[in-house]
Specification:
The protein contains nine helices and eight strands. The protein is an alpha/beta fold.
Length: 214
């Protein structure tokens, strides 16, 4: 079992084939570049408009996990405990509307890292009393990566959640290279991003910029 460390949240890449124009090979290539540049965690999130079958999702997950293993970077599965167990992932991330968090902790909390999405003070206060490893909070800014995103909380809102949380917080939602410093002022542990890295013209430079800020 890979033990959680807050440094793992510094530059947390999230993505699936839907984020690379439904091209699994492009996702593999981009994640490989990001790993070489130094991302600190990767979450496989095959959602929304994904066109992959269950078998294709499993196969892509195996390839992505192999890349992460080569670079000693934690491999997290979004909202799919069964897939996480099947792959032998390092952790699973759960949203407020996904699988019940207590059930996930009971199933895998002793074998895997557990991340939990919280966007309000009440949700963070509840998470304080749960056996999760970290909290993902946002969206900090408007985002196009998630159709059902919660209302924007801004950096002020993020700062309040960081102050309230007993767990390390990774910021997510609309984060770009030009607002990283502002996000960092919240004292969050890092940023989770999809488009900032996967749509970058220079993935390596973008990752290094994030690591310089955090």
């Amino acid at each position: 079992m890979t033990r959680f460390n807050p440094d793992m949240l510094r530059c947390y890449l999230v993505g699936g084939s839907q984020d690379t124009n439904h091209d699994p090979q492009q996702l593999l290539d981009d994640v490989d570049q990001a790993l070489q540049a130094g991302i600190t965690m990767f979450q496989y999130r095959e959602k929304g408009s994904s066109r992959l079958s269950a078998q294709e999702k499993l196969s892509l997950g195996q390839q992505l996990m192999h890349l992460c293993r080569q670079h000693d970077v934690p491999f997290i599965i979004d909202d799919d405990v069964a897939l996480a167990q099947q792959l032998g992932a390092d952790g699973v991330h759960v949203g407020q509307d996904d699988e019940k968090i207590q059930q996930v902790i009971a199933q895998v909390g002793s074998q895997m890292m557990v991340g939990y999405s919280c966007s309000t003070q009440a949700e963070v206060q509840r998470a304080n009393h749960l056996g999760v490893d970290y909290v993902g909070s946002g969206p900090v800014y408007p985002t196009m990566s998630k159709a059902d995103a919660d209302p924007v909380i801004g950096v002020d809102g993020l700062t309040k959640l960081v102050e309230t949380s007993w767990h390390p917080i990774v910021a997510i939602g609309g984060i770009a290279e030009d607002n990283l410093q502002h996000v960092a002022s919240s004292h969050c542990s890092g940023v989770a991003t999809i488009s900032m890295i996967l749509q970058s013209d220079d993935i390596g430079a973008t990752v290094r910029h994030v690591l310089n800020v955090f």
